[in-house]
Design goal:
Layout (H helix, E strand, L loop, with lengths): L1 E5 L4 H10 L6 E5 L9 H11 L3 E4 L13 H21 L3 E7 L22 H20 L3 E7 L2 E2 L5 H9 L5 E4 L3 E2 L2 E2 H12 L12 E4 L6 E2 H14 L11 E4 L19 H7 L22 H13 L2
Parallel strand pairs: 1-2, 1-3, 3-4, 4-5, 5-10, 6-9, 7-12
Antiparallel strand pairs: 8-11
């Protein structure tokens, strides 16, 4: 079966590369921005036709949240128009589309965990462009009447590439004090874990496409934290792994977001409930949990700290 992965050089794309290499009966075409300009609809269509892919993985995105405020055209081209072209192709050619969206489609004013069908009200251009992409995919499949799709909303992704965790480790080797925001709530997501559950959703034991209910799913690990909570966990994990740091966890100062103004607004609370995806991936459970933090469902949705600890440990070994 033919598979195409857009955004192959990104954190999620690299995670898919490692996983898909284990499936010997798949022919995978990895596409980077140098091979295909995602702002060019004709280029996307051409490469899709050439690949004859039955599984389209869109791991590409314009993720510069602050920069998107002044480069909205680029943000919409990559985050909205490109996935629309992919969805139209998939819906017309009976293919499966995996697309990734963001917690930034929410305004963060809700106090609890967001469900997939709750009102979206993105605050900045990045979130608005990603929401536009979601709607374009839904419309394409409504018109096309074939194929299937999954829009997986995730948050605070880290993997093989630049991310918050690597930034904290770099600063921890340079500084003895650091201020980090402590009133924005979400959960960090491992790119490796995200790629793994994505393939579990769409591929059967023989690496063939399996049917699933098309729609939007929240895909994040169990638990919740803030940027401050993540930063201190990273430092504790680094120390346990034997890293030599100038910055100690107790020297990190929690601050409100208002003290660290940025060009683009962020949601204060973008915690997302995962019951919907759990019900698909864990169908054999007699009593599937409705708790976002419940780890009794096995290793499919582990608590975020465990994955961060392993990620930092792996970095320390390099």
């Amino acid at each position: 079966m033919n598979v195409i992965v857009f955004g192959a050089a990104g954190q999620l794309g690299k995670a898919f590369h490692r996983l898909l290499n284990e499936h010997q009966n798949l022919v995978v075409h990895y596409v980077t921005r140098t091979e295909c300009d995602l702002s060019n609809s004709n280029a996307i269509t051409r490469i899709l036709k050439e690949s004859q892919a039955k599984l389209i993985i869109n791991a590409a995105a314009y993720t510069a949240v602050d920069q998107s405020e002044t480069e909205s055209e680029s943000a919409y081209a990559v985050n909205a128009q490109a996935p629309e072209v992919m969805a139209q192709y998939a819906a017309q050619n009976d293919a499966t589309l995996l697309h990734y969206s963001t917690d930034y489609v929410f305004d963060g004013k809700q106090s609890g965990f967001y469900l997939e069908n709750e009102v979206c009200n993105p605050l900045g251009v990045y979130g608005k462009s990603k929401r536009a992409g979601e709607l374009a995919i839904q419309k394409a499949f409504e018109i096309g009447k074939a194929g299937q799709y999954a829009i997986l909303r995730t948050s605070w992704v880290y993997g093989d590439g630049s991310n918050f965790i690597r930034t904290i480790l770099r600063l921890a080797k340079e500084r003895e004090e650091l201020k980090v925001i402590n009133d924005q709530y979400c959960v960090p997501t491992s790119a490796a874990w995200l790629a793994c559950i994505s393939l579990e959703l769409v591929l059967d034991a023989h690496s063939q496409i399996k049917p699933f209910p098309s729609g939007t799913y929240h895909a994040v690990p169990a638990g919740e934290t803030t940027w401050y909570g993540l930063a201190t966990q990273v430092l504790h994990s680094a120390i346990e792994a034997g890293m030599v740091l100038k910055l100690k966890p107790e020297a990190v100062e929690p601050i409100p977001a208002i003290e660290y103004p940025l060009p683009a607004p962020r949601p204060q609370n973008s915690r997302m409930a995962t019951q919907k995806l759990r019900s698909i991936l864990l169908p054999m459970r007699e009593n599937p949990s409705n708790s976002y933090n419940d780890e009794s469902q096995g290793n499919t949705f582990p608590e975020w700290r465990k994955m961060v600890q392993k990620y930092v440990s792996d970095l320390s070994a390099k």
